[in-house]
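Internal tracking record. Fields below are filled automatically when a chain is submitted to the structure queue. Please do not edit lines marked as system-generated. If the sequence contains nonstandard residues, flag them in the REMARKS field before resubmitting.
Queue: standard
Priority: normal
Entity type: single polypeptide chain
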Amino acid sequence: MTMKINNTFKLIIAIIVSEMAGIIGSVFTTPSIAGWYAGIVKPALNPPAWVFGPVWTTLFALMGVSAWLIWKKLDSGSEAGMTKRVKIALGIFLGQLVLNTLWSIIFFGLHSPGGALIEIAFLWLAILATIIAFAKISKPAAWFLVPYILWVSFAIYLNYAIWMLN
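SYSTEM-GENERATED OUTPUT FOLLOWS
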């Protein structure tokens, strides 16, 4: 027996799952902001700390909408090949969410900008793989991830600069 979940509920679930990655990451980030992170040298282009919360909340919401656009293709009565592509694409998506959370643990939790720099390179590649996989199923879903990869590209610069300056 297969349970059908309506699209509104799928959208809510997809956004909550995405935002949970941010919430888990913030468990490691928040304690470091006033402590370790405040005391390290940051590059000139480093945004003020208050910018990161709203930006990431927005990006995780966009990720959720993107994943929802893919997930709802499972119930569109598509052929078996599409079902397989959707499941693979969502698997890649979940993998990049895990990598996103791991970055916060490595950078803020372990205070390791060097380790985080290596990890964020894999995150960037996973986001790119997600965009490519999503684009084959839904172009809008892929476009919803463009701000995310752009922000992570900027985060790579910040991560690298912090590693070099410290």
